[in-house]
Specification:
The protein is of the alpha/beta class. Helices cover 48% and strands 16% of the residues.
Length: 267
């Protein structure tokens, strides 16, 4: 199904959100509303097990917020725009399905902030730069950047990256632990996007118990922000949900049989 600004499609259990506002896939309130809708649609679809975000075209994942739009609206609109973006990114982060950001081009400003709300980030080698250069506009990264970047790379390094406002290659992001993988355009006869999709499918049934994958994600994302005693209680509750699942019964039975691979269904 195609939206105006985000193309949504499902391929074998993977929902693909493609940011599509050329030339730089910058986002507006309208795009964020579509993104919010896509997140809810994928969350509520039992046939969707993994979400992949990418940018349309070959040059940009996203260059962030549409500066022209921001220059034309009131300060109050800007405040509510950032609030809605925060809520949308939190909804993505808290959805109990694995979210992969496929960084196929420049990932700058709010574009990086979208990627930071994903669980795993895979970059295309040589495809572009990343960074949070908002300081050059006299503002700060206002849709989660100051909070999520610091949680990933630490306070000192995140402050350095944001106050200097530089742009960097994806190899540096890999060194910092900001991205999980940097893959070339083609390797061993496989194109980058095909590898991304193969990776996403590896977390879908029958390969993996996608419900367990999603609950692991939820335990970490939610548990990270609360005291460890509360986090452990959350972990127990999620584990109890999984113990009651068909996939847990199948996984334990296959292990006890000792001679077969589990065939998961996502239920």
């Amino acid at each position: 199904m195609a939206g105006t600004l985000i193309d949504y499609r499902v391929e074998k259990g993977v929902a693909i959100f493609e940011l599509n506002d050329p030339p730089a896939n910058t986002y507006t309130y309208e795009m964020n509303r579509e993104l919010d809708d896509c997140i809810l649609r994928a969350r509520m679809d039992d046939e969707v097990h993994v979400i992949v975000l990418r940018g349309s075209g070959e040059k940009f994942f996203s260059a962030g917020a549409n500066i022209k739009m921001l220059s034309e609206v009131t300060p109050q609109f800007k405040y509510y725009f950032c609030l809605h973006a925060n809520e949308t990114m939190s909804r993505l982060e808290q959805t109990p399905k694995l979210v992969i950001a496929a960084l196929n081009g420049h990932t700058v400003g709010g574009g990086l902030e979208i990627a930071l709300a994903a669980d795993i980030r895979i970059a295309l080698k040589g495809a572009g730069k990343w960074g949070l250069p908002e300081v050059s506009l006299g503002v700060l990264p206002g849709t989660g950047g100051t909070q999520r970047l610091s949680r990933l790379v630490g306070k000192t390094k995140s402050i350095e990256l944001m106050v200097e406002g530089g742009l960097h290659d994806f190899e540096k992001a890999l060194q910092l632990g900001l991205v999980n993988y940097v893959w070339p355009a083609e390797e061993d006869g496989k194109k980058w996007w095909d590898r991304v999709m193969e990776y996403a499918w590896s977390f879908c049934p029958p390969n993996k118990a996608s419900k367990a994958v999603g609950r692991i994600k939820r335990a970490v994302q939610s548990g990270w922000e609360i005291p460890i005693e509360s986090g452990l209680a959350l972990e127990r509750e999620l584990q109890q949900q999984l113990f009651q699942s068909e996939d847990a019964k199948e996984g334990l039975a296959a292990y006890n049989d000792g001679k077969r691979k589990a065939e998961f269904t996502g239920r």
